[in-house]
């Protein structure tokens, strides 16, 4: 007997179940992000930090009968430390210096520290830290007081910037005004407003997501379709063909290869070794954990380049299938990107191995690097759809893409530190989406620091904007594809 054809209901997704899963995943992700981000969700390096000024003179030999006081104010919400630069007269000194930070209103001591002067050499910096951040001195006048018990001739001296002038800042020696300003720095952290109200934003966004899905469900119940429902139906209806296309693309890449899939593991390692030799031996650099720094950039850019390169030919490469079998055309670039994602997942293994071997100590924020890799995937899909559309009408696109991808590689700090770029070229990094994805992934993996919440939103919006542009152009031109194949 002939096998019964599937009923129409067999291709209809269980939309309420899918929406409940989406809400559950949303809740798990938001709770997980809260614990993984840690303090970086609530605090950031203060934008009011005072930087150490360059020294061009010595204040005075700080012997037992001398006191230097610097009055200043800083717009730091949580003051944590104060540092002072010293000179030693190029001699061996003895005794102890004391650094104190006081309020001007009640002269209470906020933090203090005493230091042996014998290890101090020219340009040494001494830092006083508070056990707990000081939170009530934002913009208030403070006194940085320096004193010692050193004998004349064996005392150190605080260094100053003799030309510095700034409102609210004044230097005095034994109560007498003195020109210039101490070479000192004040550092702390500020509150992140979005982090302090994190759960409020989570609740509002969750409510919007639930309302959006409810509207879609009500429209579906009334017989009206939407892009979301049509996409779910297409994925369920063509899921078998999607798996076949992804498997075909992945297997074709390694067809008749001796090592096969192992190349996805080996390729980033070999590229990293070559670039590591060149840039760590021939061109010196001072990047900590350079091998890890390098392989993270290599893995991310390799995926981006491969995904866009494969998606570029997704329509022309499947022309025979497109003209014979009906299937939503966006599935072809989607399956190419999914095939590249398999390679990306395999490449993450050697990346983690290199990071561990080079001494990187992963913090819990390392898991958040996956968010920025996901942003690269979304961005690559959007750009790939744009390239695939252009390739149908303009065959030179593939050659232009080869040039563009090479330029993009050199415009992204994969194997060089961003600090080497001159100021007039810094805009190249600002307008480069891959730079933002890569920089923040490295921060999570290598520094153990999660970026501010707004950075996650910015990166996601960049990726979604590229996807929206690519999908819109692809959708408008897809009906004309068959005329140009």
List its salient traits.
alpha+beta; 2 domains; elongated; seven-stranded antiparallel sheet; six-stranded antiparallel sheet; 13 strands; Jelly Rolls; 485 residues; single chain
What structural class do helix, strand and pairing data support? Answer: alpha+beta
The string of secondary-structure elements, in order, is HEEEEEEEEEEEEEHHHHHHHHHHHHH
Uncertain spans, ≥5 residues at pLDDT below 50?
A: 1-8
In which range does the helix fraction lie? Answer: 40-55%
Shape: elongated
Mean pLDDT: 87
The total strand number stands at 13
Q: Tell me the domain tally.
A: 2
Tell me the fraction of residues in β-strands, as a range.
Answer: 15-25%
Biggest beta sheet summary: 7 strands, antiparallel
Q: Calculate Rg over CA atoms.
A: 30 Å
State the assembly state of the protein chains: single chain
Q: Count every helix, treating DSSP H or I runs of 4 or more residues as helices.
A: 14
N-to-C terminal Cα separation, in Å?
40 Å
Summarize the structure.
By secondary structure, the protein is an alpha+beta fold.
